[in-house]
Amino acid sequence: MKKIGIVIRSFQENDKCFVGCRKDVMDAFLNYPVQIVLIPIDLSWKQILFLVQLCDGVVLTGGDHFTHNDFLIVQYLYQNDIPTLGICLGMQVMALSFGVGQEIDVSFHNKKDNGMHPIIIKEKTVLRQIVHHECILVNSRHKTAISSTDLVISAISQDGVIEAVEDARKRFFLGVEWHPESFNNKNSDLIFEAFIKSLY
């Protein structure tokens, strides 16, 4: 059975520190024939690398801040052509690993009620081949985005926020700014299915 790594992060709640990820990230993969390997981002790089090397693909999850290990993981996954799906912060790390882009404030996109907005998907991109639509609705929970990247920008919002990045030369190297795990629709399913298929 194939193994997918899910990056988990430290966070604080009620003055206590926890390590984990949103349950809906894990739930998104429960119906697939895969084993899940949790990868705490705050371990030493040697420990993280050991866990990553157990995996056939890795999901870079969302969160509030980058760590140095995030960029080390992206470099390793990219160089070794390991299928990679980035979500929100995970996408931003992917984008910032290539080029001279910077974080930018997009607080106007942060809608805790899972509000939806349209994005435009460029032709002849991996994302377009997956969802088969030029325009889809996505949700927003992010406060920051990235200004630019040397990766292919495959989708943008109507107000110019970069919503997806990719590299079609890899088996699967796609990052999305939204949270496909947080709402059940066909487009989310298609993205997860494409990621799973790339493991084989």
Give a written overview of the molecule.
The protein is α/β, with parallel strands linked by helices and 200 residues long. The chain is 26% helix and 32% strand. It is built from six helices and twelve strands. It has helices at 23-27, 45-52, 68-79, 89-96, 126-131, 186-197, and strands at residues 2-13, 16-20, 34-40, 57-60, 84-87, 103-105, 116-121, 135-139, 144-146, 152-157, 162-166, 173-176. Strands 1, 2, 3, 4, 5, 7, 8, 10, 11 and 12 form a ten-stranded mixed sheet that branches. Strands 6-9 form a two-stranded antiparallel sheet. A hairpin with a 2-residue loop joins strand 1 and strand 2. The longest helix has 12 residues, at 68-79. The chain is globular and about 40 Å long. The model has no long low-confidence stretch (mean pLDDT 92).
Structural class: alpha/beta
Return the average pLDDT rounded to an integer. 92
Alpha plus pi helix count: 6
Strand content: 25-35%
Low-confidence stretches: none
Which percent range fits the helix content?
Answer: 25-40%
Strand elements, count: 12
**Main sheet?**
10 strands, mixed
Radius of gyration: 16 Å
Through-space gap between termini: 10 Å
* Morphology: globular
**What's the helix-strand series?**
EEHEHEHEHEEHEEEEEH
